[in-house]
Design a protein that fits this description.
Its main location: membrane. It comes from Paenibacillus lutimineralis. Belongs to the binding-protein-dependent transport system permease family. With about 290 residues, the chain is mainly α. The chain folds into two domains: about 35 residues; about 210 residues, Orthogonal Bundle (MetI-like fold). It contains 13 helices and no strands. The longest helix is centred in the N-terminal third of the chain and has 35 residues. The radius of gyration is 26 Å and the shape is globular.
Length: about 290
């Protein structure tokens, strides 16, 4: 019989200890980083269940006896529900238009070769360098001439135009990784270009569409500067513009301010939870040229 040789892994205790210490250190750093984001959100939500006096005297204490008077005031006195609807309508319409036009443009740029393609890409990248503040005056003049100031379209159109470049570049980068064989198989099955787009490319590109939608929604939803200029009327005022007026109308009511901020964050969290699983996949795969 041949002797049996047992092989044991050569792991030194020092290496094992260093590996464990580094893992613990990583978790500690990540946990501390997470707390810097979670705690301010908890602080806002916690203070929304306090009256203004308690917020001023001891804002870091837990609201063991919560009150809902701030939420009642938010919906009854400052009509925050109307601003909610305005924000969701304008931001949702912006996301829908950006995905439709951006998806079609990205499909053409990623799957077709034509003269001037490089020039179009250069132009798209160049538009990212133009600050939004530089376009306020001409955009406002266009909205006045078309009669869309203080209407839903007064914010939907500028936001759609402003976010379209980002969506086109991200979606085009993802679509360029889709294998050519899928197009050939679709052609064999009798699909035309339009059918190929919404039956093949749109379903496969769901991760990047989800990634683009969350970013476009956040940028549109949180754009206070454009909201104060283009839709300042109270009937079409989004919720971010309403927040800027609460401090002037109810300057000392910090509980109401915390409530308004809490209600503003809720839609963002809901949208993010629905599409968060697609974000990392869409952005990383869209950056790879196949």
């Amino acid at each position: 019989m041949e002797p049996t040789i047992s092989v044991k892994p050569n792991v030194q205790r020092g290496e094992f200890r260093r590996f464990k210490l580094s893992t613990v250190l990583i978790y500690v750093v990540l946990s501390a980083w997470a707390m810097t984001t979670i705690y301010p959100l908890f602080w806002i939500v916690n203070n929304s269940f306090k009256v203004s006096r308690d917020v001023m005297n001891n804002s870091f204490s837990v609201a063991w006896q919560p009150t809902f008077v701030n939420y009642t005031t938010a919906f009854d006195r400052i009509n925050i529900g109307k601003s909610y609807i305005n924000s969701l309508v304008m931001s949702g319409s912006t996301v829908l238009l950006v995905l439709i036009f951006g998806g079609l443009a990205a499909y053409v740029l990623s799957r077709f070769n034509f003269a001037g393609k490089r020039a179009i890409y250069s132009l798209l990248y160049a538009t990212l360098l133009i600050p939004a503040f530089a376009t306020v005056v001409p955009v406002y003049e266009l909205l006045i001439k078309t009669g869309t100031v203080n209407t839903y379209w007064g914010l939907i159109l500028p936001h759609t135009a402003g976010n379209l470049t980002f969506a086109i570049l991200v979606i085009a980068g993802y679509m360029s990784t889709i294998p050519k064989e899928l197009e050939e198989a679709a052609f064999i099955d009798g699909s035309n270009r339009w059918q190929m787009f919404y039956k093949v490319f749109v379903p496969i590109s769901q991760p990047v569409f989800a990634s683009a939608s969350i970013f476009v929604f956040l940028w549109s939803y949180n754009d206070l500067f454009s909201a104060l200029i283009f839709v300042s009327h109270k009937d079409v005022r989004p919720i971010v513009a309403l927040l800027s007026e609460i401090s002037s109308q109810y300057g000392t009511d910090f509980g109401l301010m915390a409530t308004a901020v809490t209600l503003t964050v809720i839609p963002v969290l809901i949208v993010y939870l629905f599409v968060s699983k697609y974000i990392q996949k869409g952005l990383t795969e869209g950056a790879i040229k196949g």
